[in-house]
Amino acid sequence: MRITDSLIFPARRMFLGNTAKLALSATAITLLGGRESLGKTSSDEASKDVDILNVALGLEYEGINAYQIGAESGLLQKPVLDIAVKFQSDHKVHRDILIATIQNLGGKPVEEKKLNEYAKALKADTLKSQNDVLDLAARLELGAINAYLGVIPSFKDTALAKVAGRLAADETVHWTILNNTLGRPLPQAFAFGA
C-alpha cells in the first residue's frame, strides 16, 4: 500500500502546497546547517525566514507530540517503542535548532500546543494498535520528507540545497524504518517529493 499525499495531515499539506510561496530562505537553511556566519540577512529577509521557520517549528512540535502520544498509548512494544523514542529525539533536535535560529534572526518562536490539542488534531482516539501508531508516524514523516524536498529547487547555492537534502534524508530514514516495521514494500522510484 502506497501512502499518498491525500493522507498527509492538513498542516503538512498546507506547508507543501505553499512551498513556492514559503520556500525556506538561504538564511534559514544556512543556520540549520550550523553555518551561522553565512546566515546574516536584512530584517525583511529575516522576517520572512522567521515566518517560514515558525511553520516548520509547528510541524516539528506536531511530530514530537505524535511520538509522545504513541509512547504513552501503551500500544508500542519493545523494540518499536525504543525506535519511536529515538525518532522523537531527532525531532527535538530539529525543534531546538529551529528555535535557536528564529531567536538568532530576532523572531519569536511559535508556542507548542498542549498534548491533548495534538491528540485531538491527530485523532489519537482512533489509535487501536501498534500498526495504527506506526501508520500515523509514517504519514507525518512522509509529510516532512516532501516538505524538505519541496524547498531544494529554490536554492541557487548548492551547499544550502545540500542541507535541505540532509534533513529530507533524516526523515526518509524514519519513514523507511516505519514502513519496514509495518511490512510495507519499498517505495517505487520517484516516490518522494511529488
Largest sheet: none
Q: Spell out the helices and strands N to C.
A: HHHHHHH
The CATH superfamily bears the name Ferritin, core subunit, four-helix bundle
Q: How large, in whole angstroms, is the Cα Rg?
A: 16 Å
SSE-based structural type: mainly alpha
Helicity, in percent?
A: 55-70%
The CATH architecture: Up-down Bundle
| Envelope shape | globular
- Supply the number of helical segments: 7
How many structural domains can be distinguished in the coordinates?
Answer: 1
Overall pLDDT score: 76
CATH class bucket? Mainly Alpha
The CATH topology is given as Ferritin
Termini separation (Å)? 17 Å
Protein model, in words:
By secondary structure, this protein is mainly α. Helices cover about 65% and strands about 0% of the residues. The protein is built from seven helices and no strands. Helix 2 (about 25-30) packs across helix 7 (about 160-180) and helix 3 runs antiparallel to helix 4 (about 80-105).
List the helices and strands and how they pair.
Blueprint: H1 10-17, H2 26-32, H3 43-72, H4 80-104, H5 115-121, H6 130-151, H7 158-181
Helix pairs in contact: 1-6, 2-7, 3-4, 3-6, 6-7
In short:
The protein has helices spanning 10-17, 26-32, 43-72, 80-104, 115-121, 130-151, 158-181.
